[in-house]
Amino acid sequence: MSATTAMTDPASASAAVLVLGATGTTGSRVVSRLTVRGHRVKAAGRRATPVEGAEAVRFDWHDPATYEGALDGADRVYLVAPLDSATPADVMLPFLERARASGVRRAVLLSSSAIPAGGPAVGQVHQALPGLFDEWAVLRPSWFMQNFTGDHMHARSIRAEGVILTAAGEGRVAFVDADDIAAVAVHALTDVRAPGTDLVITGPEALSHTEVAAVLAEVTGRAVAHRPLSYEEMRDHLAASMPLEYAAMLAGMDRANARGAEDRTTDTVRRLTGREPRSFRDHVLAAAGGTEPTLSARVL
């Protein structure tokens, strides 16, 4: 469906869109875009943080007692998996069964370009989704540009040491801006016809981490370098701050990137939204200039 022919589903006008992870990188942007368009939104999170224009509700994947209140009155849901879990299907699939029973008819899942249906982690949820809902989509974005400018470990190491640590070698990745992911998500949630497929979302160009470091250095005037690690070194580095199984999975994704797994671009953003995706340079310029909406002045 093209952006020029897509229309908002009128049947959903009085029902709510439940956005999980509503204060997160993509969730906050999805909430903002939906409320600006006049949609009723339930912004869900562990602390039910107030969000302008939306109804804040408490939701915790590991507390089924929070499910009913979050689902009440919602007919669509934006799904963000629990963080740092290598087996999110364990809690997500029982929730989705309840969501279907409560009247949710459309589900849009945030996954990753690195994880196919049936793959590890959220790939198991991707595989099950078409059997649970007639209306669905799986967003499979490439790695986020915000990883280098937000509160991700890469951004923190750039600020503290001027380095990016990866096991990706010189493999290229078509990094994508979270705002472009959110724009696609809103179309998937509200267009008359659900995509009914997975959508690989990328930025306009594939860059190595060395090239990313060069752009950051040029725009900010700071010394930034990419320091390649082996798979084992990256796994152990990550395991200092997360479960070993999850660290091994992330380091494995880096190793796949070194072999070219993410060296591709797609037309998904342009096809669904009618505009070109933001380039990494433009993203960094916005972050450095303080115009990136979720970033503070300390970012770069």
Automatic annotation (TrEMBL):
Xref: InterPro entries:
Ergot_Alk_Oxidoreductase, NAD(P)-bd_dom, NAD(P)-bd_dom_sf
Cross-referenced Pfam families: NAD_binding_10
In the UniProt record, the signal sequence range is none
The NAD(P)-binding domain sits at 21-116
Its transmembrane ranges are none
**Which protein, by its recorded name, is this?**
NAD(P)H-binding protein
